[in-house]
Amino acid sequence: MSSSSGSPESWISSFCSLLGHEYFAEISEDFIEDDFNLTGLNSQVAMYKEALEMILDVEPEEDEDDDEDEEEEEGDESIEGEERITRNRAAADRRHQRIASDLTITESSAEMLYGLIHQRFICSRAGIQQMSEKYELAHFGVCPRTFCDQVRTLPVGTSDVPGVDTVKLFCPSCLDIYVPPNSRFQTVDGAFFGRTFGPLFLLTFPEYDLSRKGQDVIGTGRSGTAAADSGEREKINGMNAHNLAPGLGKGKVYEPKIYGFKVSERARSGPRMGWLRKRPADIQELDEAAHFHPDNENSDEGSTINGISSRHRHAKAPRQNGGSPMSVVTNGEI
Amino acid sequence: MPSLLTQIPKHTKYRHRLHLPAQDPPAVRYILPIQAANMDDFNSETDSDYASYWRDWFISSRGNEYFCEIDEDYLTDRFNLTGLNTEVQYYQYALDLVTDVFDLDCDDDMRETIEKSARHLYGLVHARYIVTTRGLSKMLDKYKKADFGKCPRVMCKSHPLLPMGQSDNPNVKAVKLYCARCEDIYNPKSSRHSAIDGAYFGTSFHNIIFQVYPALIPTKSTERYIPRIYGFKVHAPAALIRWQNGEKDDLRKRLRKLEIDSGFADDGEIDAEDTEDEDAMIEGTQEGGEIANQA
Ligand SMILES: [Zn+2]
Ligand SMILES: [Zn+2]
């Protein structure tokens, strides 16, 4: 079905090498050829079949073939594929000239389809692995926030629906999202990366040292050395505590000053947004499951000042899945 | 950076153009302005007849977009330059160059050194000038045009930035950009800006401007990004976000008790936050048909 061996560059690799497409992973053909992965996409993309053929570098089928043939071919494409391609090549060439305008439509459909498959692919084992390699090479840039000190970011969407918003960069260090610095990314659809990939990445690679700067090489031995240097790892709700927003907290919150004096929050122009960049000094303050336990709650009461009231308000029963790295908050619990 | 000195004939003497004001202009000293003055008072240029070659060249050079033009009146008042003579090599020559009265015949290396000193001197005076009434108004104009760029944080919706330093001493930290909407600081996008000394803007200017022009204070937003996996919040970040929201509510309660305007867009609905949080819990589907409606 694929002709990638014959052509110097596949549609996929040329798409990914376009200016502005630097964030995209190259989806493996195996992934695209598994129908399960494409479930529901045929209704979302115009000229779905043509778009899919374009992505996989399959020559378009002959229009003049009668309907019976067409349907038959659809049934056992994989067997007859190669033969059919050769047979139809001459006819297809003629057809190319005739429907040059159709091709641009197919091209944009193919880009849309690729993007939507991409959203799913980068959440698969193979896809997230490929994205982690790009992350290590800082292909997605670094956080613009000064206190995040050049940590690497991840491309994300704010919506899973195409046409809503452009791609953004998620910083795992401050848990915020930013507009990519280069305007060429401001035409890339955020849905092609989706909302899930960024957070899923954090949970999939808990051993990454997220505070490493963009220009540092993480290297292949990263998990080994990272695990070795701190022995027992502090956990918070299934995440390594040192990876929960390391760019936030004391010393990493901007404090407005005038001639060395802090601007009081009582001033009209006083600070109002400090909370956005705060993090408790003791990260275990956030471990609600631990706090629910009566012993812990009593012993911690004296050590917390600001957090305690809000935490009490939100205290809930401990969760069954609290220790799993894949744990997510179930609906309505929060 | 191309040297201006290569563009001006070597022995040109333009000392005659030195313009000394009959008396000190009223607002040149770098004291903290207490309230916004009527800007119309300062629209009459006192030195507009005198072209400022060096300063014109400097502020229009690529990479110097963050600087405003310092008035000649300000530069020629020695009081404003107090202490800078020890900070700047060849101080007098550098000052002569900045004020277009430089007429030393010297070799190119020396000229380059003096040129460098002049840029440093300009930057150090700039930090003082931009907290004067006139300087603030010039920087305000640039801010309104977003000459300093826009906040990269998505939730800040391209709010314009202001240049700032993390230190008032030179050679400590490069210039950063302050967003008054999220009250955080960011690195300039371009490397030609990230090499500028932060001391040329100082630690106070970007805060003073909002004291002088309180109407400029942007409405603060509680809108934020919430990490989700297939529509579900992730435990650890969600716990942190809840804790941060507690901090925010505490602040709003403190301000309310003091009857101070919190400045948030949705003031008066502290408890609405939690409800909104719950509403935002939308289950994702493979097709991703829903868009989370986060407050
Ligand atoms: Zn960050
Ligand atoms: Zn901002």
TrEMBL record, chain A:
Compositional bias (Basic and acidic residues): 81-91
Protein family according to the UniProt entry: Belongs to the casein kinase 2 subunit beta family.
SUPFAM superfamilies assigned to the protein according to its UniProt record, in alphabetical order: Casein kinase II beta subunit
Record-linked InterPro entries: Casein_kin_II_reg-sub_N, Casein_kinase_II_beta-like, Casein_kinase_II_reg-sub
Pfam families: CK_II_beta
Region (Disordered): 59-91, 291-334
Residue spans of biased composition, Polar residues class: 321-334
Listed GO CC annotations: cytoplasm; protein kinase CK2 complex; UTP-C complex
Entry's Gene Ontology BP terms: regulation of transcription by RNA polymerase III
Protein name: Casein kinase II subunit beta
Subunit details: Tetramer of two alpha and two beta subunits. Tetramer composed of two alpha chains, one beta chain and one beta' chain.
Record field: compositional bias (Acidic residues): 59-80
Role, per record: Regulatory subunit of casein kinase II/CK2. As part of the kinase complex regulates the basal catalytic activity of the alpha subunit a constitutively active serine/threonine-protein kinase that phosphorylates a large number of substrates containing acidic residues C-terminal to the phosphorylated serine or threonine.
Naturally occurring in which organism (per UniProt): Calycina marina
GO molecular function: protein kinase regulator activity
Gene3D superfamilies for this protein: 2.20.25.20, protein kinase ck2 holoenzyme, chain C, domain 1
Residues forming coiled coils: none
From TrEMBL, chain B:
Region ranges (Disordered): 266-295
Biased composition (Acidic residues): 266-281
Sorted UniProt keywords: Kinase, Transferase
GO molecular function, one term: kinase activity
GO biological process: regulation of transcription by RNA polymerase III
One GO term describing the cellular component: UTP-C complex
Keyword DNA-binding: no
Pfam families: CK_II_beta
Recorded superkingdom: Eukaryota
Family: Belongs to the casein kinase 2 subunit beta family.
Self-association state and partner proteins as the record states: Tetramer composed of two alpha chains, one beta chain and one beta' chain.
Function: Regulatory subunit of casein kinase II/CK2. As part of the kinase complex regulates the basal catalytic activity of the alpha subunit a constitutively active serine/threonine-protein kinase that phosphorylates a large number of substrates containing acidic residues C-terminal to the phosphorylated serine or threonine.
UniProt-recorded name of the protein: Casein kinase II subunit beta
Organism: Calycina marina
